[in-house]
Amino acid sequence: MNKLFIAFALLLFNCNSSAQKPKSAASSNFKINKTEAQWQAQLSDMEFIVLRQAGTERAFSSPLNKNYAEGVYVCKACETPLFKSEHKYDSGSGWPSFDREIKGNVAFSTDKDLGYTRTEEHCATCGGHLGHVFNDGPKKTTGKRHCINGVALTFIPKE
Ligand SMILES: [Zn+2]
Question: Separation of 41 CA from ligand 1 center, angstroms?
Fold first, then answer.
């Protein structure tokens, strides 16, 4: 009887684990799909940690934090335009901050990595993690603070 129970339990366990979806299944919705090995070959270590593993760069480490030149910020991984210089502001956080994204080019999800719910944002084309959105942005405009890792962006100055 005991043996039967164990066999049954093992069977359940096996079915359960094989039914689990691979974590990468979610990324198949994006227009640009590469394997993690391909991304790793294309990106620097820090770019890979932020864009592909949802890491966070050190505050005040990005040269783009204090960049106020006119231009557009594109995805470091796939060059999709994500943010415009006219929507950038100094939040004092140490990360490049914008009051809005280029609509349609940035997608959102929620995460609880720090124990509370945050709105995560990522490139809508390749799925690369960019940062988070908070509701303590400039009240005069959108009230939103898009807190973005500079390492996830390439700045293209206006010609
Ligand atoms: Zn991208």
Answer: 15
Rounded Cα distance between 78 and 53, Å, is 16
DSSP-assigned beta bridge partners for residue 74: 81, 154
For the question of residue 147 being annotated catalytic, the response is yes
| 148 CA from centroid of ligand 1 (Å) | 13
| Cα angle: 122, vertex 56, 141; to 5 degrees | 55
Q: Where are the alpha helices (DSSP H) in 20-107?
A: 36-42, 45-53
Question: Where does the pLDDT of residue 113 fall: very low under 50, low under 70, confident under 90, or very high at 90 and above?
Answer: confident
Model pLDDT for residues 28-83, shown as the tens digit of each residue: 679 999 999 999 999 999 999 999 999 999 999 999 999 999 999 999 999 999 99
Average pLDDT over residues 141-155: 98
Helical segments of 30-135, H only:
36-42, 45-53
Percent of the chain with pLDDT over 70: 82
CATH architecture entry for 59-159:
Beta Complex (2.170)
CA of 66 to the centre of ligand 1 (A): 22
Q: Is the dihedral of CA 130, 132, 133, 134 positive or negative?
A: negative
